[in-house]
Amino acid sequence: MDTQIAKDNLKALLLQESRKYRFVARAHTSLMTTMYVISIASSLAAAVLVASDALPKLVLAAITALPGTAILCTSAFRFKEHSQWHYKKARRLENLIYSLEFENESVASISKKARTMHDSMELSWPGFGNINGEESARESMSSE
């Protein structure tokens, strides 16, 4: 395969992956922000609605439960950690593009670095289920 074609193909692949990871990072950040907004808004709404005695107790109880549920979801699904992980992976992919494009590293060298980076990033995945300080099953397996 022509060296320039291989270089262009690898660059396109790395760029596509980087964009994907940035998109997912933004999605996790948006989910985290949404959970915080739900928590704050429902807490305020519950206080106002209790004071006004405008809704049945069952509805008020459901609204009152929303802040804790939102915070629990944020903790259990680890939106912040996942967002940071995806941004970090996107940056590492972009660094490989810079090395390929501007530092004249070979396609083979960048390909090898990409595989190594993917493997190391896989080991650093934050996992799910961080409730009461418990590790996820994946984290406990990777630490053995």
Brief synopsis:
By secondary structure, this protein is mainly α. The protein has 5 helices and no strands.
Whole-number tally of structural domains = 1
Low-confidence stretches: none
Helix content: over 70%
| Biggest sheet details | none
Number of discrete helical segments: 5
Order of helices and strands: HHHHH
Rough outline: rod-shaped
Explain this structure to me?
It comes from Pseudoalteromonas amylolytica. This is DUF4231 domain-containing protein. Keywords: Membrane, Transmembrane, Transmembrane helix. The chain is mainly α and 144 residues long. It has one domain. The protein is 82% helix and 0% strand. It contains 5 helices and no strands. The two termini are 42 Å apart.
Q: What tags apply to this protein structure?
A:
144 residues, rod-shaped, mainly alpha
